[in-house]
Amino acid sequence: MMLKAEGVSKRFGGVEALRDVGIELRSGEVAALVGDNGAGKSTLVGILSGAIRPDRGRIWCNGREVHFHSPIDARHAGVETVYQTLALANHLDVAANLFLGREKYLLRLGPFSILNRAAMRREARELVARTGVRIPDIDLSVMNMSGGQRQGVAIARAAGWGSRVVLLDEPTAALGVQETARVLDIIKALKRQGITILMISHNLRQVFGLVDSIWVLRHGQMVGSRDVRATRPEEIVSMITGVDQATGDEFA
To answer: pTM score, two decimals?
Structure first.
């Protein structure tokens, strides 16, 4: 398994966000994490990304047990995360955003250091092409880009640095139809490169057309997983809601 969690639990004061949760992601798999609001999806992704410390539980990455104390630890293990907020620097261009925290220098002299902007632009073009992101001009400031292009930059930054696993928190939630299609194409391109992807989504129609497996959280517990080829939207909605006769219309 590329990424595995077992017995993960987390409380926030009197609220039990997760209870004995487990998940397994195969190498090169695209999986969806679904559940109603408050089910614990963001908390689980926060733990897998190193942003949240679990109260209990174990995590393995590429067959090795890991202990994430921060997102930097997760990054070193090959796990990157793209949150809904994207965490982009709006006033900087594409290349500068892709190299945030990974800047290349011609000269390192503390506050007087000189950036190697030419090398960063060159590698940024290669990275954008490799991840399938369509950006007309990498010198364009992020603030002047569309929502889909901004999401593409965030995904390219996460996936372009030798990442084994990319966690996506609602990657298309705020996008229109055309921009959503572009982001889904990027995810498919990452899958072809063998990158393992876990995405939070509320859109079951989108999920069934994209992922290999679906994991369902309800009230802080993992109630099950299904291979997409062996299930239907109605079954997934029933697992999400706990209602036996769900129609699937709620998440269409």
So the answer is: 0.87
